Structure formats: C-alpha cells, structure tokens
Amino acid sequence: MRGLLLKSWKNILPTFAYYCFFTAVFFAVSIIAKELIYFGFVCVMFSVAVPVASMARDERDGWDKFALASGVTRQKFVLSGYLFALFVMLFSWLLFIVLCAVTGATAENFALFLFFAGASLFAASVVLVLVHKFGVEKARILLIVVFVAVMLVGVGITSVLFGEDRVSLPLFAMPAVVFAVGWAAFAVSCFVSGRICAKKDY
Questions:
Q1: Coil, strand or helix: which one is 11?
Q2: 140-193: pLDDT as tens digits
Q3: Number of CB atoms found within 10 A of residue 133's CB
C-alpha cells in the first residue's frame, strides 16, 4: 500500500510547485479579505484535481495494468487511490484550520470549515467513481460538469447559511449534515469503485 501511495505522490511532483503557489495565493487572499469561502473552494478543487491528475498519469503510463500484473489486488489498488485523495483533503483541511485560527477562531469560521470539508469529500466521491468507471479521458467532461455543479450548489448553500440574509438555522446544523453525508458518500464511493474495478478488463 505504501508503494502505491508513494507512486501517487510521485505523479504530482511535476505540478507540486503550481499547487503550492495556487494555495498560497488563495490563502493570502482569504486572510486579506477575511473571507474563508475563497479557500474553501480551493479545498474542494484540490480534492478533485490532485487525485485525478495522479490517476491520469497512471492511465497514460499503463501503471494500473502493471500494478495488477505485479500482484496488487484490485481492492488495494482502488483503496490506495481513495487514501491518497483523503491525504490531500486532510492536508487542505489542516491549512483551513490554520486559516481559521489566523483570521479569528470564531464559530462561523469552523462551521465553514466543516461545510467545505464535507463538500470536498462529496466531490471526490462522485469524481473518483466516474474516473474508475469511464477512465480519466472519457470522464473529463463529466468531471467538469460535476465540479461546476458542486461549486454552484456550494455558493448557494454558503449564501443561505453564512450570508447577510441567512436562514435562522443553528450555525452547525447544515455543515454537520454536509460533513456526515460527505463521509458516507466517500465510503459508498470506495465500495462502488471496488465493484467496478473487480469487473473491469484492464
């Protein structure tokens, strides 16, 4: 498993500086504007973009066929992709928590963190299933549609929960629901992808 995760990490090294620069820019913008929503959307984007970039490299190199021929089980192959996505999300969540502390450890900031953490899990859940089902290239347009849909829904929900005309719900009610649904979707997605790969002809 560690070898598979290291391979995923190696796949993104050529673009790692770009990810760091992009993260730093939006981290700074969020601090200056005192608006964590900007960085929240970056977290969602990275939860999708980084794992898919790694999987695209594997697909181009024929790594999946090589790994399976080397004795790696299909379940372990799928699980490694989900673990890598989870590590990416955990890192972005850690930065989000640091951002919360820097801009003010308010309840609203941590509610935003909870919401975008759940949104990241949900977005990754949908996208990873599509990639395992159709491959990166065939699923590329669907990935864009899913990403845009998640962004639009996210904008709508954040304006309802945290905007000037927000509804009178308990602050952590909807973020907690989104976070729980995100974890459930991630678990289901991993199971479904495992079933897909079990029947897939590599």
A1: helix
A2: 777 777 777 777 776 666 666 655 555 555 667 788 888 999 999 999 999 999
A3: 15
- C-beta of residue 189 within 8 angstroms of C-beta of residue 129: yes
CA diameter of the chain? 57
Chain centre to alpha carbon of residue 153: 16
φ/ψ of 70, rounded to 5, equals: -85, 0
First to last CA, the chain: 20
User: For residues 12 and 19, what is the distance between their CA atoms, to the nearest angstrom?
Assistant: 9
**Nearest Cα residue to 112 out of 46, 24, 38, 53:** 38
Q: Give the 3-state secondary structure of residue 172.
A: coil
Please check whether residue 53 is in contact with residue 127, taking contact to mean a CB–CB distance below 8 angstroms. Answer: no
Secondary element (H or E) of residue 99: helix 74-103
Q: What is the pLDDT of residues 61-99, one digit of tens each?
A: 777 777 777 777 778 888 989 999 999 999 999 999 999
